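Exercise 4. Each item below gives a protein and its sequence. For each, produce the structure-token representation.

Item: Acyl-CoA dehydrogenase (Nocardia aurantiaca).
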Amino acid sequence: MTDLAVEPTDSPAPEVLTPGVLPEALLHRFHGRAAEYDRDNRFFAEDLDELREIGYLRAAIPVSHGGLGWTLTDFNRAQRALAYWAPATALGVNMHLYWTGPLADRIAAGDTTLEWLAREVSAGKVIAAGHGERGNDLAIDDSTTSAVPVDGGYLVNGHKIFTSLSPAWAWLGIHARDDSDPEHPRIIHAFVPRDSAGVRTVETWDTLGVRATASHDTVLTDVFVAQEHVAEVHERGAEPGPFISSILPWAIPALVNVYLGIARRAVDVALESARTRNVLSLGNRPVAGKPFVQYHAAEAELALEAATAHLDHITEVLARGDDLGDRLLLALFAVKENGTRTARTVVDIALEIGGGGSIHRRNELERLYRDVRAGSIHPPSSDSVREYIGNFLLGE
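Answer:
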């Protein structure tokens, strides 16, 4: 077992949140801690405590089950604002929140199978994602983690990477492979309680950016997973059930909002610098008067407007429940790639506007530049997106 756990509190929310809106004072406090978390490679424990206290961790859970009943649109709006002020906090908490949306969807559909997990979330418990595995480029379609059927459940062995929220999670959502029938291997999707024997955190997270997510490795050694904690089971290569299928429509738009939030913040910081940084060539007036600075500012805004409009459109389509048929995954992958690629481009432009001072460690732009780079690596990666879309369009 690990000694990194952060104990949840059951403090009631001190105020009723406006759907989709986080308190301004809270966001400013988070911003004040972001640089310190990054510098010290420290988990955003204080931010998480405050988010729990105001009810944000249960925002998507229906009111009937102890949540706030926020919609997909509300959730995405809040994530963009959170990322603007505290990128790593927004990215980390997203790994919990994207489980809560599918929970809400299943409850709305009358499925009571996972009501127990909704109650755990409403009690302040954190869910993390245990999907990353070295060498597994098929995501949840396959797994290097084994699940052996035993009496009452499964015995699980595997090594998960990129387990964001490592110090804080109470439940780890995993997928693993059951080869008990070699001709028909199955993928199980289940939740592992943190206090299970055989669960161990290995502190590996020391990265370029989004350092405060504490996305350490998690080793599972002969971990028993009870049948009641199994969410879905399907044959390898088959479509997962409705709960697992709901993950990407909740996870991807929010993920893109994180990176576009970073980009918007970078532009705002750069423009403020341009308004206050004087240069001799303009008679000791602000560099904002230079045509090339104005050109860069316009380029950044044009790119952000397009990517944001694309993301907001897809979010609204999903929130309305429109049936995209077999183009759903294409739409999600496209908005992820366009959004994260635009975010990187825009932050690059912001550094051009900000000038040489932008690369100093003390400059917020330097941290934002590092944080935004994770967008192309975060699944689905840029190469996976192109491979899938190309195959889809060409019928391969």
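Check: The CA atoms of residues 218 and 281 lie 56 Å apart.
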